[in-house]
Amino acid sequence: MNRQLWLASAVALAAATPAVCETAPKDVTYAEGAVAVSLSGAPGDAENGAKVMTTAALGNCVACHQIAALPDVQFPGDIAPPLDGVADRYSEPQLRGIVANAKMTFEGSFMPAFYKTEGFIRPGNGYTGKAPEGDLAADPDRAANRRCRGLSAHPQRVTGARVQGDEDETDET
């Protein structure tokens, strides 16, 4: 596995799926978009990072990005920049910040924040077509439990009658 893929995988894992829950999403400090310290308090793990990058129920980076070092990934996306050489373009703190909340670095980015639980603007009042008033109500116990189980902190995506992200940990659909 090349250096860039390893670093991108490690940062994706550390930022999107903290296992130790050291830093709560609202306590993350961004300096010009970068996050200086690990959000989990543990070093990144390239093998688990690659799993996060390629698993739909986790980070699913490959839905938007291409990664030449992972040629066996089915249906890679092409709407976002390729991740090849990303470690040569950004530092580890910058990558951590981009994965945690890309809008802190790239205003207007369509990349979802993978470590954010408040301040959402798109969800509205159920089927009214109108934005909610005030902050969205969240179940902090559920969000903390998802983060500690290694699931992302981004809001669930609804498709039909099923909410993605609530699958069992072993379900990788």
Provide structural commentary.
The protein is mainly α. The chain has helices at 3-16, 46-54, 86-89, 92-101, 140-148, and strands at residues 158-159, 162-163. Helix 1 (3-16) crosses helix 2 (46-54) and helix 1 crosses helix 4 (92-101). The two termini are 25 Å apart. Residues 141-173 have low confidence and may be disordered.
The parts where pLDDT drops under 50 for at least 5 residues are 141-173
Biggest β-sheet: count, sense, barrel?
A: 2 strands, antiparallel
Strand share of the residues?
Answer: under 5%
Residue share in helix: 25-40%
What secondary-structure arrangement, pairings included, does this model have?
Elements (H helix, E strand, L loop, with lengths): L2 H14 L29 H9 L31 H4 L2 H10 L38 H9 L9 E2 L2 E2 L10
Antiparallel strand pairs: 1-2
Helix pairs in contact: 1-2, 1-4
Short description:
With 173 residues, the chain is mainly α.
List keywords for this structure.
173 residues; mainly alpha; 5 helices; 27% helix; globular
